[in-house]
Design brief:
single chain; about 260 residues; alpha/beta; Rossmann fold; 2 domains; six-stranded parallel sheet; two-stranded antiparallel ribbon; 11 helices; 8 strands; about 45% helix; binds magnesium ion
C-alpha cells in the first residue's frame, strides 16, 4: 500500500508569531530563576530590540530564557546583538556557565510560567500569540487537497496543542520537544507517511535535514514570513526552496 502524503510544519515562525509571548514568558522565567526583585525593572515588558534581533538564531525555547538573563548582565556580549549572533552557540554556552544553569531547568522554568499564565487566564495567554495572516486558513484547505499535515516544534506538545485547537486546526500528528530532535522525528514520520514537504523558518534546521542521509530526500521549504536572518534567503542549497506567502497559497502540487 502506498504511503499517505503528509506536510510537516514547524510551529513558531511558520504558523504562529509567538515572539511577544516568548519574551513575556522568558522574562518571567528568568526573573524567577535569578530570584531578586531588583532585576524586574531592568527587563522591559516589551521585547527588547536585542532579543528580537537574536531570535532568528534560536533553536530551543530555553535559549530565550538565557537571552533574557544575558540582558541583565551589563558586560554581556548580547549588548551587541550582531556580534552575539555571530558566535551564537558559543555565547549561549558561556552564558550557561556564567549563570550556572542547565538547559533543562530553563525549559522547566519556561513551561511553569506558561502553565501559570494559562491557569490564570487561558484566553489572554492564547491571544498573546498571533497566527500569521492567511496561514491558518491555508492549512485548513489542505483537507481539500487530500493532504494530511503534521506539526513538529521545539515548543512543548501541551502548549502547541492548546493553540492549535484555539485556531481550529487539527493536525494528524503533533510532536513537541519532548519527542526528540526534528531530524529524528522526521525519520520516524517518514516510516509511515510520504513527507511531501517540511516547512520551517530556521534555515540551519533545514540544512541539518539535508545533511542527514536517511532524510535528505525530504523536500525542504524555508518559510519567508518567519524569523529569518538577513541572508537566509540567499544562495540556498539544492533541496531547500524558498516558500513565499504567495507560493504557499497555491495548491501544494504547484509549489516551487
Ligand atoms: Mg520556527
Amino acid at each position: 500500500m502506498s504511503k499517505q502524503p503528509i506536510l510537516v510544519f514547524d510551529f513558531d515562525g511558520v504558523i504562529v508569531d509567538g515572539l511577544i509571548e516568548y519574551w513575556s514568558s522568558s522574562r518571567k522565567a528568568c526573573l524567577k530563576l535569578v530570584g531578586d526583585e531588583k532585576y524586574e525593572k531592568q527587563l522591559p515588558l516589551r521585547a527588547p530590540d536585542a532579543f528580537q534581533k537574536v531570535r532568528p538564531w534560536v533553536k530551543n525555547g530555553w535559549e530565550m530564557v538565557l537571552l533574557a538573563a544575558e540582558l541583565l548582565r551589563t558586560d554581556s556580549p548580547i549588548k551587541h546583538p550582531a556580534q552575539f549572533s555571530n558566535e551564537y552557540q558559543n555565547n549561549c554556552y558561556k552564558a550557561l556557565k556564567f549563570w550556572g544553569w542547565h538547559p533543562e531547568q530553563l525549559q522547566i522554568a519556561l513551561d511553569n510560567v506558561r502553565k501559570q499564565a494559562i491557569h490564570a487566564n487561558k484566553e489572554k495567554w492564547l491571544e498573546s500569540h498571533h497566527p500569521f495572516s492567511g496561514v491558518v486558513k491555508r492549512i485548513q484547505q489542505l483537507n481539500n487537497e487530500k493532504i494530511e499535515w503534521a506539526v513538529l516544534t521545539t515548543k512543548s506538545t501541551e502548549f502547541t496543542s492548546q493553540l492549535l485547537s484555539y485556531y481550529k486546526l487539527s493536525p494528524t500528528l503533533l510532536y513537541g520537544y519532548e519527542r526528540g530532535s526534528k531530524p529524528e522525528v522526521l525519520l520516524q514520520i517518514s516510516k509511515e507517511y510520504l513527507i511531501q514537504g517540511f516547512i520551517e523558518d530556521r534555515r540551519a534546521t533545514l540544512e541539518t535535514v539535508l545533511n542527514t542521509p536517511s532524510i535528505s530526500w525530504i523536500p525542504c521549504y524555508l518559510a519567508t514570513w518567519g524569523y529569518l536572518k538577513d541572508t537566509d534567503d540567499q544562495d540556498l542549497p539544492i533541496g531547500i526552496q524558498l516558500l513565499k506567502p504567495k507560493d504557499f497559497m497555491y495548491p501544494v502540487a504547484d509549489w516551487p
